[in-house]
Give the backbone structure.
Amino acid sequence: MTQAAGGGLSVRHLSHSFGPRRALDDVSFEVAQGAFCALLGPNGAGKSTLFALLTRLVTTPQGEIEVAGVNLARHPRAALAQMGVVFQQPTLDLDLTVRRNLRYFAALHGLSGREAEARIDAALERLDMAERGGELARSLNGGHRRRTEIARALIHRPRVLLLDEPTVGLDAASRANITRHVHDLASDMGLTVLWATHLTDEVWATDRLVILHRGRVLADSVAGRVAGDRPLTEVFLAMTGAEA
Amino acid sequence: MTAQTQEAQAAQDRDAATQRPRTAWGTSLLAIVEREALRFLGQRGRFFAALVRPLVWLLVFAAGFRAALGLSIIPPYQTYITYEVYIVPGLCGMILLFNGMQSSLSLVYDREMGSMRLLLTSPQPRWWLLFSKLVAGTCVSILQAYAFLAISAAFGIVMPWLGYILVLPALFVGGLMLGALGLALSSFVRQLENFAGVMNFVIFPMFFLSSALYPLWKMEESSQLLRDICAVNPFTHAVELIRFALYAQFNGWALLWTLVATVAFGVLALWGYDPARGTTRAGG
């Protein structure tokens, strides 16, 4: 039985090409339920392609993805229902309030009325955003917009949370805050987290670490073990070369 | 595949079936319509721009053109009409056409900015999400068309009162058809900057090669070929559907044509947004 069956994420022999360019080549890894897994790779490593496949924006005939035990290709809607996603691009409607943005998302997951409001309250509370519900998304700073997007991704109580470079464009304090928040979500709520990044300082020594480079998995272990007694940045640069 | 693997897969299928999210037809549709309406109401400039365009045609172009174009009595009209009266349904169609393209432009923008991803990764059937988007855009078009009809009435171009009710389904079908065309285009145009060009190649031929500004028999006097092109243009049929509905008459042929075009454009859009084709570009 795969680890995904218990609420985790499983990627097996996934390959994908855009025309002649091989974006992913036989990528396999598993993330156990409640684990925080950092997907580390330089720009162009294939992280966004992997996310597009994980979220079914793109499909490929080669390989399999299981989300909380549900096969994405065979049961896309059931698998997507188990998944919360924070995209690299901002996806908030800036002219709507935070709460309206969340309400829209809740409705796309079939939630409305009191149930939706209760879940929105809980999600905002968890991300320390309860006071901001009535504000226009446009008035929030970058860090708070990201927190809103994370709160939104939790409304339907997913078992797996995917974040594609969620700290891009944020200052150091906001980056550290969001990284800590999401680590807490994994440890407190048992949420399986896949966090794509190219920044080694966002990876904690106890995290699962998958290093992706030129569409292939170079390392798949605990971050502390991959780094050994050297700084992770040094190891990462050595593995991926000057392009990192 | 071994018997054990098959059994495990069957068990997983059963589990997935029980976990399958309930399709929230109404909830998701209302949310998408509400979001589109709020966006529209927040963009007052867009509302006025959408009204100014047909009003300029009605109050300036039609006034100048009136003397040049003599109109005979053709259905659904039962008497001689002025040119302003003739082009009102065509200008309603123009609102639907521009709005359909504007909505698809915003879809290309949404896709580049990411909010389209949010929609497409929700656990509702993709065709329903795209249909909801179409309905949302059409509702906004209908609001604009009614505002235009109200202003036209204020200038003395009044339709039978029943026509104002019966035109609603005609505007809806026409709006869906033109929205579906925009949706299909948006799935094939990858970049925002390319879209303006595509719009010019679609909007202007579609509008001018139709019965919006002149009846087909008038076009036939100039060129049989142009008349035939106008006759197969689905926009012509959307305009005629609206024209007949505004005079409380039913044009079955126009409805059939418009529905067939809606289905064809809808299928094309669904194919365009098929995940096997991919809706995102490769990145990091």
Q: What stands out?
A: The two ends of chain B are 36 Å apart (CA to CA). Residues 81 and 156 of chain B are 13 Å apart (CA to CA).
